[in-house]
Amino acid sequence: AVWKCINCEDYLCEACKESHKLGRITRKHRLLHISEKEKETSVLKEVFCPIHEKKELEMYCVTDCKSICVLCVADASHRGHELESLNEYAEKIRYKVGSSLSSADSVYPKIGDNMENVRTILNSQLSGSDDLIDSVMKNAIAQIKLNAANLKATEKGKAEILRKRERDLKQRQEDVKSKLLASRRFLETCTDAELIEKGQRFIEDLDAISLSNGKSEPDESSGQLTRNEINQKLGMNLFI
Question: Pick the residue with more confidence: 219 or 134?
Answer without folding.
Answer: 134
